[in-house]
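Input sequence (246 aa), recorded before submission:
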Amino acid sequence: MHFYLFDSFLTDPKYKKILEEIENRILDLDIGGRILHLTVLRDFETSLNAGLQDKYTTLVIVGDDRTLTKAINILAGQKKPLGIIPVGENLEICRTLGIPEGLEAIDLIANRLIEKIDLGIANKHYFISSVKGEKADFSITCDDQYDIELSTEQKFCICNLTCLEQQISNPHDGLLETIIYSQKKNFFGKIKTKLDSYFQNAKLIIKSRGESAPVIVDNGEVLKTPVNLEVLSGGLSLIVGRERRF
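Predicted structure, token format:
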């Protein structure tokens, strides 16, 4: 039996039609179970933990990339597979996982193509995609062996899955990939990206040489330096699509 959790932002009336179609498709494919719609009165963590009961074989969240990020911080290390039905506007991570938007994703839930993928850990916060920083005097300590010093003009992206649009990392290798780059506008006003350095490590420490500086985790949560990074190998059992980009 499946456990479905619909994120609270989906209470917006503009999602009413697609949510009705999703629930009908779930019944058509005979992959029903308990369906729970979050509201401001229902806590996400408490509600998702209810799906860890033995009677449920699969957890399914309905929402966007932020919904997925919230879920992995609760389910990291759990063996029960997680599926996502993408609905909303922030869906880049879902696309990288090969999960189509809306009704088409329900077929993936039924087919159950499961991958165990790595998760990154940033100061006890789990992330699936990347950690980014810019506009500060950063330094990065790599595997407790050497330091990389960045200029204030340089930015970094530490990837577990995706970074800089087309850069896809391997979420099975137990490593994080660090890309250091700089960006400038050309004569026509278009931003041009120059890759300055690339390296792989299992453990990193992000520091700022001046005041504590912000880094962004999975395009959402903001952490302040210093930030310690490591990898939880195979930390998430995830239902993915055949069109995944890794």
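Checked by second reader. Helices lie at 16-28, 44-49, 65-75, 92-96, 104-111.
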